[in-house]
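Input chain follows. Return structure tokens only.
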Amino acid sequence: MNARRSGALAWLAVCLAAGIFAVPLLANPGLPAGSDVDFTAQSAQGFLDALREGVVYPRWIDAANRGFGAPTFVFYAPLAYYLTSLVSLVTGETAAALRWTLILSAFLSGGAFFVVARAYASLLGAAAGACLYLLLPYHLIDVYDRFAYAEALAFVWFPLLFLYTSRVALGVRGAWLGLAFAYAGLLLTHLVTAYMALFVLVPYGIFCALRNRAWRRIGTMAGAGVLALGLGAVFLMPIVAERDRVHLDCITAASAGSGTETAGWCRNFDPARSFLYRDEVARGYRPAPIKPWVNRAATTQGLVAGAAAALLVFHGLFGGAAVATGTDPGRRRLFTEAVAQAGLSIWTLFLQLPQSEALWGSIPGIGAVQFPWRFQAFQVLAAASLVACALTCLAPAARTSRAWLAGGLVLLLGVALPALETSRRVLERRPYLVDEARVLDPQVQGRVTYEYIPAGVEDWLRFRTLPLDRIPPAALAGPGRIEVEASGTHRRSYRVESPGPNALRLRTFVYPGWRATVADQPVSLRAAGRVSQIEVDLPPGAYLVEFRFGDTPARSVGAAVSLASLLLAGGLFAVGRRRNPKP
């Protein structure tokens, strides 16, 4: 079989695996009713509505929190929702756009893994690894059980991060720029996963640099990381400036108190309850329905990684003369990847176990990860990479021993089948009920997001049950007439006639970025009522009152830093090409 045909068959296998991944999304009329699907539907629809109004970077979801709004995209990464909005231009519906974006992400994730794995693995190994990368249980749990939309899309970036990190270590020209843009892409897709990536990417980069005796390139990797932060500053700087304006501590510290339903909801984010195999009930928690499934996923994925590593050891890869002397670049690259991924497989499993609890308590910001079992995203990558390495070694060995090939394939198949069976059962756990009507349902769009309720709101823990239904969208405190001129997500305007001094109050939280004008003159906002509604004083007369949600100093500076970082990256790349015209 010629190389072109072999390559085509390998790509066909990857596409087939992506198709299997997407079958439930294609075969069912709705999206799976996963735990985060309502949040995703609310965010996607609010983001899309704002874009349709001409807002370039939507940050406010006006329907959230029972119509009082939420600064969701001040704190939540926007890239997945830009992509969804782009897909919606074709589908015409938000639910369909979410579905097709996930399908597209499956093909991109599998393709990215395959292309990256070809740097060290054979066609067979890269294709098999890409199939497992798509079909191992945790990847499917993310989509079909949790509906962790942005986290699922983050799988596209993981292989690219490892590719460019290894290329920086090898001294490949321009690899630092690829690393910077890949990490910036992950930051703008899912911030928590980008933070988690540091726990695997930093040791991987150090190992690759030391293995290639190029420790100074660790500095190049760090510089790429700084550039990535600059590229993502438009998103990151407002988080730093405004994190105390909302109740993110409900998630990051799991310290909302006790005694109420909402406080119990916040306690769900306590990492101490979510370690693998830990008895939650014994610690005073209600059992999480997802826990048995993440336990099974971690176990079966660990078995896949362990079996692949055992085959590599038994094959003698680690003791080969060509590897030890570095005379065979291909084997050296394979060896480096296999050792690194074996180490990361053990490390990511350890981070999910109760034995790592002391570490979790000592690292700043790690509470934002919420669930230790989230590190399975990188366990999936490590297991698939080890299988790619093992199959790359099996094929040459088969020339001298058919029994070796058969035994190796039987072992890998034997550990892969329980993992794939777990994946199959995950697909059956949730009903596929979320269609366009559900996405647009006022109950879904008005869903309460406690972590994004402004800090000035009284009784925020009981916000879902407060008697607020009779509060109108806009109302005058005294006699007068009010007429809606325009009502959008980031802009509202009203024609007002008032016989005397008055005040106008909106069914919208006071939050940095909201500004008001009365007859084109800026006026001050204040927080009114027990839920900190926007209120402005009005003079007598007839005039237009306008409210806009826009930038703050931190948001403007962040945008300027991102633009400057983009220009800097382009300039450095151009200078590098002129100084080194040939690879």
